[in-house]
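Holo prediction — LLMBWK7S.
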Amino acid sequence: MKFTEEQVAFRDAVRRMVQKEVAPIADEVDRNDRFPKELVQVYFDMGILQMRLPEEYGGAGASLTDACIAFEEVAKVSETAALMVAQGTISFILPLLHFGTEEQKRTYLPKMGEKPMLTAIAITEPQAGSDVGGMKTRAVRDGDDYVINGQKCYITFGAVADYVTVFAKTGEGRGTHNISAFLVDTRTPGFEIGKLDRKMGLNGIPDSPLYFDNMRVPAANRIGAEGDGFKICMRCLDMNRPTIGAVAVGLAQGALDLAVDYAKGREAFGKTIADFQGMQFMLADMAMQVEAARCLVYEVARVADEGFADDAAFHRFAARASMAKCYASDMAMKVTTDAVQVFGGAGFMKDFPVERFMRDAKINQIFEGTNQIHRLIIARQLLGDGLAA
Ligand SMILES: CC(C)(COP(=O)(O)OP(=O)(O)OC[C@H]1O[C@@H](n2cnc3c(N)ncnc32)[C@H](O)[C@@H]1OP(=O)(O)O)[C@@H](O)C(=O)NCCC(=O)NCCSC(=O)CCS(=O)O
């Protein structure tokens, strides 16, 4: 893993912004479960809100590696603030860029570079989480429109989004060949936001159910062909997963840094706890695990940035993207839990941010595909065409 000079300068700039804008509010945002909307403007001005938007549509055209750098830096202080970086990538840029028509790209993508804009992706339903093919939301063609009815749940940023990419059934029965994707303007009549979810962590991120009540969406807003929605959904998830790995690496590094500082200052039995070999081994293990995950995440991002020769190469990447997300998030759960242990009783209190880091770590093992699903994806590739080119 070697960053270019520009990437090092970018990382340092993000680091400075985090100290100025994120660190002072991170605990308050968690305590009050307050959406830090002031960061939307800060990120937009810095260009990291829309960083993955290609230059031809008014963005910075940043690579996946660049995005991972930003995610990692912000997550060292706050996962909530980190999830607002490159916010519209999975929900808006990736579906439109890879599956939209030229007209859709020209109409919608530049909006993201013009002013701060938030978007969401609506896949999960109360009875269809891992089993995307089991979704019940339906879109029925009616003239030049589709009429969408149904509900989604746990939709990150759904309550504050300007646009939501909604996946809905356009054919009969359970299955993965009858789902379609729609770009929905949230001012559309019939688009309703449910009560905000109360969560274990990620406080400040608005998550909520969304309800669609005879919501009429122009057929021109369907992304991709009718019935291609499942594959579009899978591809967008695959392409975004390394960023969750980067968030997990940042979170774990943040917890490790706090644990090291605390261990050097806390005294017991006449010396600092960092002087005890038991503590040294624990901190060394934490550092080793963070570094291993970081190498995996940035290697997978590098592969994506180089592009894919064919579909087989993409599938090998997708399995490795699952490894990066799964390994890094399991690691972050362990490292943040160990960081709390280093702090002892103080770590269990809300006086130090390590307990927040531990609570926030949990979601990374669940969202964007549970880590059980990721093991399934890796095993299918391993036992199928294999992981090597
Ligand atoms: C569990 C899954 C990995 C697979 O589901 P299925 O077993 O139901 O489907 P398959 O038989 O594997 O595939 C059906 C069909 O699709 C093609 N396919 C599969 N994967 C891909 C892919 N990665 N890219 C392209 N195409 C793909 C496959 O070849 C088959 O095609 P043919 O029939 O051969 O033509 C999957 O359901 C899964 O990943 N589940 C996890 C869902 C998930 O990650 N959810 C997270 C939601 S987003 C989130 O959490 C953020 C919060 S929020 O705001 O919502």
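READOUT: The chain has a mean pLDDT of 97.
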